[in-house]
Amino acid sequence: MKEGELKCAECGRTWPVRGGMPHLVFPEELQGDDARSRELWDRIARFYDWIAALTGVIQGVNGAEVQRDLIARLDLRPGRAVLETAAGTGSNLKVIAEQMGDQHTAFGLDISPRTLTRAARKLRDFRPPPELVVGNAAHLPFADNVFDAVLDGYGIKYYSDKGRAIREMLRVVKPGGKVVITDLGLPPEKPRSFRQRLLLLWIPGFADGSPIDLIPDDVKDLKLEWDAHETAYTIEFHKAGTYTNP
Ligand SMILES: C[S@@+](CC[C@H](N)C(=O)[O-])C[C@H]1O[C@@H](n2cnc3c(N)ncnc32)[C@H](O)[C@@H]1O
Question: What percent of the chain has pLDDT over 70?
Fold first, then answer.
């Protein structure tokens, strides 16, 4: 996308386009955890891939396998449209684009422009490259019912309003479409293993449980699984309604 600004044809409001990415951040003045997240992730963007690799070692998992299994949950097919919220440095989007070939419509959104700048470098050889948007997962700048699947990979623990972010994922996914949310976490009311304690030292905040209680009642096929030696969870569900295969 060209540098400059995007103008809303209806209200005349403008939004900057920098580094080839539209900045569609709502609210414009980020508050609380969201402001802190952007500052934190901009600061550590260049180390993030190393941090993720080391986290996988502490969890005792093969990161590439975990990623393949995660993305398999999205039921990708050529022609489908996928969004990753909290896309970070683009590792998941790279696998998504590889699997879908030139028939994909893949979008990655993140609150941190610097992580997305790194993603853009990782993804620049794909034709078409996934579209990257600077934005807030709790205020997605997309129309209703447009994606076949939405992935939130390791982002939700940072959101100031997790419930709103989940409702936004449901709003933008098509009826019958799939939402997958994964993050580090600990199953409640179980003694902590050595691995879990080590990970707690490495990533404070990882002690959170899963946000399963925030999933609205009207979703279908809701599942929660604990994996990676019970250091991570994955929640998946379908939006109510009948899915129309593209
Ligand atoms: C642990 S990284 C995950 C990156 C990537 N999904 C992955 O699996 O490697 C968490 C990401 O969440 C993003 N993030 C935090 N709060 C956010 C928000 N409110 N909206 C969108 N992204 C957010 C951070 O900027 C960071 O890139």
Answer: 100
